[in-house]
Write a structure and sequence with these properties.
By secondary structure, the chain is mainly alpha-helical. The chain contains three helices and no strands.
Length: 183
């Protein structure tokens, strides 16, 4: 199985570097073109003129090949730049596609967590309000007035820590737990 790792930023930087190298090489070719294309014979004889003509022909062939190499290099830089943009666009599209289901899931979960938090808060409020109402009405009755001191002595040490723990749990820990972690 083959794997390709493409980093668009590195590809774009490589294309920029290659373009800089190409322009430097092209400038060197332009400087060398003048003296090599029209080479003057070393002497006024036929052999010197033939050698100068031969070297000028080699220079023309070299300049033609250098032009093709420069065109190939320019095309390579364009393809590399286009590939970097394509990879970056594909990565952006993939991230968008991957985030859509998470966003679709996160919204209902957050709504459900808020609803559960509201229900638990209302439940705790209503239960404690009901218990307090019952205790108040019972304590104002003749029987409640008669046994109230005994009830307070027996059950207050048991009920008070349980009530405080329940309030602390539902008010402090339950909302944080529903959001995904404890404070």
């Amino acid at each position: 199985m083959s794997a390709v790792i493409a980093v668009p930023e590195l590809m774009a930087q490589a294309a920029t570097d290659l373009a800089s190298i190409g322009s430097t090489v092209n400038a060197a070719h332009m400087v060398a073109a003048g003296p090599t294309l029209s080479m003057l014979p070393a002497a006024a004889d036929e052999v010197s003129a033939g050698i100068a003509h031969l070297f000028s022909g080699y220079a023309q062939e070299y300049q033609a090949l250098a032009g093709k190499a420069a065109a190939f290099q320019d095309q390579f830089v364009q393809h590399l730049t286009t590939s970097a943009v394509s990879y970056a666009s594909a990565e952006a599209a993939n991230v968008t596609l991957l985030l859509q289901p998470l966003t679709a899931i996160a919204t209902p979960v957050a709504s459900a967590a808020t609803a559960v938090q509201n229900v638990l808060s209302d439940l705790v409020t209503n239960v404690f309000a009901g218990v307090i109402d019952i205790l108040v009405s019972f304590s104002s009755s003749p029987l409640g007035l008669a046994i109230e001191p005994f009830v307070l002595l027996l059950f207050l040490p048991l009920v008070l820590p349980l009530a405080l723990f329940s309030v602390a749990f539902f008010v402090v820990f339950a909302p944080a737990f529903l959001r995904g972690g404890l404070p």
